[in-house]
């Protein structure tokens, strides 16, 4: 079966209030997760996002610029791009996301392939 | 692809990197901000660590994580200072100091940080701060422990730890305790105070007084880490400091053998000596050698000497008990606490037989009121057991069992009572 690309979008997980030791432990869990995916050869990319930022929208006939938002648990904190056979398999992989204990959420989305010419 | 694999393998942080870097950064920033703003330093450092957590978790670590963290913490500190409404001249100069470029290659930077850590250590262990608060403050500022973690290590609640920390910080302010490495006449007594606190910290972790083995082991590791920081500096290269480090290492070497698979405590006699950490033993002995360089003979020397006797013995029976008893006889002159006297009684029993051991304990009972001291009954029980006075042994083990709250010890004592019961049953069967 042809592999499909999936994006994991991480919401929250800025993990404020962790002690240095907890932060280190959490980091090591992430390392282990990424390493495992890399060894399987399905990890393609991943990047963290800065907090804050702006949201632009169109209101009352003009562009409105809002943010940054205070609710860090809603913020997108970063993403993975990886390969899986199916959405089910991608969901299985996402179950190992280390930030569940800290209120983080993962959104799993299939990346649409661009039309080939 | 091989190089890619190599890259993957290196993604591991040094043990306790965050915690120890937190201690180094808080020390450095507190010197710059002033000791009354230690909370600000702690906040800024917390931010830097969380930023690292966000940025590194995807698998890329900077070449020099320590320098990265320090740079981020400094920038964060500058941001805070700039945000403060009255950006006074003083803050201008603080900012100047933070911005100073440091060359990391020539080692100067590390040395400066070490000085900062030492200043902080002397401040945290200032004699005018109560010992409990000294330890809490040391763990918080120098070892990066959170209040929750300290509370867990001391089996108390967070509120108690908050109180201890608040008291410590109040003292720092009230007494205008300077962040400095003491000099001249002051140095010797202040250094003793630091050694004492590190010793208490280690003991707190080492004594199996309660609860989770892992947390307690971390306390010991932190005590060793800080004692190393001290002995690596010219003010810390004293015989007493070396002796303290030796004592810690020689005790820590036996950690892996102390607890049975079922969580029960193993006496020295029953420990699997092949589990002892020979690397730590070798290092401990080296520091013990270094500690013998002066006239000074401290309790740390004697304790380390005793620990060395145990570490060097191939088996419990082959232990040099005579030497250990000599060391205890000297130690009693410096420290006549119940635990030391009781350990001496064990040595007495080894050299002169259990009857003499019982006598030593009875003597100790005459001198101090130790009715609630469970170890005393456990030791007595052991002596009577060896004397085959099983009734007396059982009575003492039962008393000890009533008094201890430590699960590992409860398991151990229950096992002893069971043994006695079995001996008794076998005996009955034999009679019939």
Please compute the radius of gyration of chain B using only Cα atoms: 25 Å
Relative helix content of chain B: over 70%
Q: With helices defined by DSSP (H or I, 4 residues minimum), what is the helix count of chain A?
A: 2
Topology of chain A as a string of helices (H) and strands (E): EHEEEEHE
* Largest interface between protein chains, with number of residues from each side: A-B, 24 and 27 residues
Main sheet of chain B? Answer: none
Alpha carbon gyration radius of chain A: 17 Å
- Mean pLDDT across the residues of chain B is 87
Q: What count of helical segments of chain B does DSSP give? A: 20
**Low-confidence segments of chain A:** none
Shape of chain B: elongated
Hey, roughly how much beta strand do the residues of chain A contain? 25-35%
Average pLDDT rating of chain A: 90
Give a quick summary of the entry:
With 117 residues, chain A is of the alpha+beta class. Chain A has helices at residues 20-40, 87-94, and strands at residues 4-11, 43-48, 55-59, 62-66, 76-84, 105-110.
Question: If you had to describe this structure to a student in words, what would you say it looks like?
Answer:
The complex is a heterodimer of chains A (117) and B (432). Chain A is of the alpha+beta class and 117 residues long. Chain A has helices at residues 20-40, 87-94; strands spanning 4-11, 43-48, 55-59, 62-66, 76-84, 105-110. In chain A, the strands form 2 sheets. In chain A, strands 2-5-1-6 form a 4-stranded antiparallel sheet, with helices on one face. In chain A, strands 3-4 form a two-stranded antiparallel ribbon. Chain A is flat and about 50 Å long. The mean pLDDT of chain A is 90. Chain B is mainly α. In chain B, 70% of the residues lie in helices and 0% in strands. In chain B, helix 3 (38-56) packs across helix 4 (65-83), helix 4 packs antiparallel against helix 5 (89-99) and helix 17 packs antiparallel against helix 18. The termini of chain B are far apart. The interface between A and B is medium-sized, with 24 and 27 residues.
């Amino acid at each position: 079966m042809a592999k499909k690309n999936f994006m994991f979008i991480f919401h929250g997980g800025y993990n404020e209030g962790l002690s240095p030791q907890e932060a280190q432990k959490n980091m090591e869990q992430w390392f282990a997760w990424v390493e495992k995916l890399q060894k399987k050869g399905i990890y393609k990319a991943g990047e963290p996002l800065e907090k804050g930022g702006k949201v632009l929208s169109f209101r009352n006939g003009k562009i409105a610029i809002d943010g940054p938002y205070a609710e860090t648990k809603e913020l997108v904190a970063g993403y993975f791009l990886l390969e899986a056979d199916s959405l089910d398999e991608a969901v299985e992989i996402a179950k190992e996301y280390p930030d569940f204990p800290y209120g983080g959420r993962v959104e799993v989305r299939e990346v649409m392939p661009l039309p080939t010419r | 692809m091989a190089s890619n694999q190599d890259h993957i393998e290196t993604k591991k942080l040094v043990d306790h990197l965050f915690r120890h870097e937190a201690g180094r950064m808080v020390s450095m920033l507190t010197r710059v901000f002033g000791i009354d703003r230690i909370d600000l330093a702690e906040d800024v450092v917390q931010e830097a660590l969380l930023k690292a957590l966000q940025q590194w978790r995807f698998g890329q670590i900077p070449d020099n994580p320590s320098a990265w963290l320090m740079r981020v913490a400094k920038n964060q500190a500058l941001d805070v200072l700039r945000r403060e409404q009255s950006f006074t001249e003083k803050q201008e100069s603080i900012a100047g100091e933070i911005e100073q470029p440091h060359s990391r290659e020539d080692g100067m930077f590390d040395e400066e940080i070490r000085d900062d850590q030492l200043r902080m250590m002397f401040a945290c262990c200032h004699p005018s701060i109560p010992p409990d608060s000294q330890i809490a403050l040391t763990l918080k500022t120098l070892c990066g422990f959170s209040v929750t973690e300290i509370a867990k290590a001391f089996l108390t609640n967070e509120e108690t730890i908050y109180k201890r920390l608040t008291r410590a910080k109040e003292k720092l302010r009230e007494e205008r305790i300077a962040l400095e490495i003491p000099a001249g006449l002051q140095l010797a007594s202040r250094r003793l105070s630091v050694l004492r606190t590190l010793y208490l910290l280690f003991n707190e972790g080492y004594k199996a007084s309660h609860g989770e083995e892992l947390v307690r082991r971390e306390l010991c590791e932190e005590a060793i880490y800080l004692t190393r920081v001290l002995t690596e500096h010219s003010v810390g290269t004293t015989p007493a400091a070396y002796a303290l480090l030796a004592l810690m290492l020689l005790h820590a070497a036996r950690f892996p053998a102390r607890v049975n698979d079922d969580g029960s405590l193993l006496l020295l006699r029953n420990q699997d000596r092949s589990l002892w950490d020979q690397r730590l033993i070798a290092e401990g002995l080296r520091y013990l050698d270094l500690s013998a360089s002066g006239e000074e003979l401290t309790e740390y020397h004697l304790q380390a000497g005793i620990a060395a006797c145990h570490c060097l013995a191939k088996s419990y029976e082959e232990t040099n008990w005579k030497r250990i008893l000599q060391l205890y006889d000297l130690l009693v002159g410096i420290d006549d606490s119940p635990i030391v006297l009781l350990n001496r009684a064990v040595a007495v029993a080894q050299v002169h037989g259990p009857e003499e051991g019982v006598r030593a304990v009875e003597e100790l009972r005459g001198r101090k009121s130790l009715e609630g001291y469970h170890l005393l009954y456990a030791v007595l029980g052991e002596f009577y057991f060896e004397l085959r006075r099983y009734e007396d042994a059982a009575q003492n083990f039962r008393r000890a069992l009533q008094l201890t709250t430590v699960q590992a010890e409860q398991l151990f004592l229950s096992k002893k009572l069971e043994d006695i019961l079995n001996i008794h049953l076998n005996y009955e069967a034999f009679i019939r």
